């Protein structure tokens, strides 16, 4: 029986885990892997205290920091996935793909997963030119023409990475304005190999054995146009990873976990949530970490009084 | 002793995780960097019919992506007590 079970090993889960260890709360942290969504980033420049760090290294630092203090208080289970949470006599029963655990309290810090394109061709061309990981697969497209679907920071980062070795990079943004940081957009625009097409809504992926192009619709003229590319990189946002919690918590219409921003409590006494899986307004590593620490301070008081 | 090969790219997190897994389990492997080596890049795409890394070969068996439990089974490094 644990005082606390933490679901998730990104910046939120790890922050709570470290604080739990230092407060000697009997805790179990369950995660598929460490690091969170930034794990695939070639360079994170806004993790406070660090000028630039790769997502892989950030993941390693988070894990090492947790393990350095975990001791007897915090058990860490990697490669394990939470499937369900239910109320029990003494608190909660957490079911995973390995076994079941009991805890007085639960912190849900499972973050988000990437949204996938849903247009004709996505199934046939997955990994055959259509990819969701530039830092993994980008190099396969060296000297080729590629497209990046999206306009947020992830899309800009992907474009920046690809510009280093691709023949040309075309960003397809569905609206007039790109949502990414101005600083990054300005820097990218200076590169002659980059083209930004606005008001472009992806319609279909074309190809034979591999991708040969993407058809998009101009949002204003409604005209359909085809862009000849051999690689399509998709960075179109996040979906909360909260399916396992739907039996115990009422998710909002975006499938986020609603929380009280003052103490990170969910509507269920004994359950807190932090990070991208919640209805917090903004999604950042630094915010996830801060929110999780706030949650843990509140959890500690709860455990002391119950 | 199994012949293990991995086609990888330098910034691929899953490739890195696979190589860490090999090292941790004392599995000798050959690493082909398909960013640097164009011939190996073409070879990987032809052998696997796709463009996702990592592509791992254990003798003749091909795995696309890093799946730790599958790898453990194929390499025979799964624990005696299967969970």
Major sheet strand order of chain B: 2-1-3-4
Q: Stretches of chain A where pLDDT falls below 50 for ≥5 residues?
A: none
Assign a percent range to the helix content of chain A. 10-25%
Tell me the total number of β-strands of chain A. 17
Largest β-sheet summary of chain A: 7 strands, mixed
Number of strands of chain B: 4
User: How far is the N terminus from the C terminus of chain B?
Assistant: 26 Å
Strand content of chain B: 15-25%
Written as H for each helix and E for each strand, in order along the chain, the element string of chain A is EHEHEEEEEEHEHEHEEEEEEEH
C-alpha Rg of chain B (nearest Å): 13 Å
Structural class of chain B: alpha+beta
Q: Determine the structural class of chain A based on helices, strands and strand pairing.
A: alpha/beta
Helix proportion range of chain B: 25-40%
**Over all CA atoms, what is the radius of gyration of chain A?**
21 Å
> What is the first-to-last residue Cα distance of chain A?
14 Å
Tell me the quaternary state.
heterodimer
Q: Name the beta content range of chain A.
A: 25-35%
Low-confidence stretches of chain B: none
Q: How would you characterize the largest beta sheet of chain B?
A: 4 strands, mixed
The overall pLDDT average of chain A reads 95
- The total count of helices of chain A amounts to 6
Could you please describe the fold and organization of this structure?
- The complex is a heterodimer of chains A (306) and B (83).
- Chain A is α/β, with parallel strands linked by helices.
- Chain A has helices at 11-22, 55-70, 134-137, 153-163, 182-189, 285-305; strands at 2-7, 27-30, 74-77, 82-88, 91-96, 100-108, 112-114, 130-131, 145-149, 168-172, 194-197, 200-207, 211-218, 224-228, 231-234, 238-240, 271-273.
- In chain A, strand 5 and strand 6 (100-108) form a beta hairpin.
- In chain A, helix 1 (11-22) runs parallel beside helix 2 and helix 1 packs parallel to helix 6 (285-305).
- The mean pLDDT of chain A is 95.
- Chain B is α+β, with helices and mostly antiparallel strands and 83 residues long.
- Chain B has helices at residues 13-24, 38-48, 68-75; strands at 4-8, 30-33, 55-58, 61-64.
- In chain B, helix 1 (13-24) links the parallel strand 1 (4-8) and strand 2 (30-33).
- Chain B is globular and about 30 Å long.
- The termini of chain B are far apart.
- Classes of the chains: A alpha/beta (306), B alpha+beta (83).
- The A-B interface holds A 33, 39-40, 42, 54-56, 59, 79, 98, 127-129, 131, 133, 135-142, 161, 165, 209-210, 231 and B 9-17, 34-35, 38, 41, 44-45, 49-53, 64, 68, 83.
